Amino acid sequence: MSIKSVTVYAASSQALDPVYVQAAGRLGRTLAEAGLEIVYGGGSTGLMGAMADGALAVDGRVHGIIPEFLTRVERGHQHLHTLEVVGDMRERKARMLEKADAVVALPGGCGTFEELFEAMTLKRLGQFLGPIVLVNTADYYDGLIKFLRYSTEQHFMNPAHLDLWQTVDEPEAVIEAIRRATSWSAREALATASVKPVR
Ligand code: AMP
Predict the structure, then answer these.
(1) Engineering a disulfide at 29: which of 54, 115, 139, 169 sits with its beta carbon 3.0 to 4.6 angstroms away?
(2) Alpha helices in 13-162 (DSSP H)
C-alpha cells in the first residue's frame, strides 16, 4: 500500500513537559520531510499545535479538520494549508480516518485515546487497513501497551490483534514502522475478529 497521507492524533493540553512538545514537533518535521501529507484535528494548542508547527517549519503540507463548535472557542491553527470545518466531533473523527493511509498517535488524553481506539477497532474488523503507530515518548504508553497485552492474555482479543499496531520510542522511527507494518486484509480481519472458546 502506498502511503501518501498520515493522520496524527495528539494531545490538546498546554501543560505538558517539554519532552512531549519537542517530540511532537519532531514528528511533524519527520512526516513533512518524508513528503507525506499530515491530517490532524486542526488545533493550535498542545502536541497538536507543536506537531503542525514542526511540519510547517519545513514546508510540510498540513490539513486540519475541526468541528464548527470548536472554531467558536478557539480559532484553529491559522497557518495550515487547509482547515476543513465539519459539523461535529463524530464527523471529524470519520473524516480524519477516511483521509488516512496510516495513523500515528502521539501521547494524549481521552480525545486521543478515543481516536486511537476507534482506529484499532476498525482495523481489527477490517474497516481500516492502514498502519497504526504509537509514539511512546518518555514511555507514556507503557501502561496502555501492558493493558492491551493483558486484554489478549485474558482472551478479550486475539493475539493476532497485537500485530495491528506498532510502537516506537522516537518520532524519527515512525516512517520505518509505517513501511514495515504487517499487511492486513478485510478477510484476515474477519477470520480473527471473534475470539474462539478456550479449550
Ligand atoms: P486530548 O488528547 O484529550 O487532548 O484530545 C486530543 C484529540 O482530540 C486530538 O487528536 C483532536 O482530534 C481532538 N481534540 C480535543 N481537543 C481539541 C481541541 N481543543 N482542538 C482541536 N482538537 C481537539
Answers:
(1) 54
(2) 18-33, 46-56, 68-73, 89-98, 110-124, 142-153
